[in-house]
Amino acid sequence: MKSSVFFPETNGHPPPMAEVEIHTPEGMIKGLLHKAEGAHGAMVMAGDAEGGLDGPAGLYEALAEQLQKVGIMSLRIDYREPNDLRESIYDVLAGIEALRQQGAERVALLGWSFGGAVVITAGVASDLVVGVATIACQNFGAEMAPDLAPKSLLLMHGTDDMETSDQNSRDLYSLARQPKELILYSGGDHGLTRHTGLALDKLCAWSKRLLLISARAGGY
Hints:
The protein is 30% helix and 27% strand.
């Protein structure tokens, strides 16, 4: 993939949150950048098959704000072509490259439902990625989960998900290699609506552990 070009609204000096455009040979990707001064760790957040920037139960904005406070920048991307797996993987990879241009040395990925498969595949493909987290991940397109190792894999799923069964995440956990973690939220729905606080706390802790380390320290 050719390098993407990052165009924040404010000529490279965005405020704490700014609309951004990532220009690539395949078209323009829109997103929201939560900048953290001097950050070397970053997260890309990808939505479900409908796209959008908010994630399940509006979790993505809250997570980005929490990470920003501890010195981790976040990029919430909106797919150019929602529900197209190949194009959405490209968009996430372009987002990773954009963050590299902003100084990121370590990147974690987060995807919801369809987006889980997107970030698993993108995580395998990128040498900057140190961990992948999914919420209510679908199985289709996530077959590369075993190839993520030694990168960290966090799978989160509600046991009452009526759209994608929690068995999907159980199966992916069985296939994946260490380091991996599976968290099942009893009674949780597809968007973890009743468990947003718990999911937020877990994702913050997981992200800080992976991203608040200089890339020069090496390892995952």
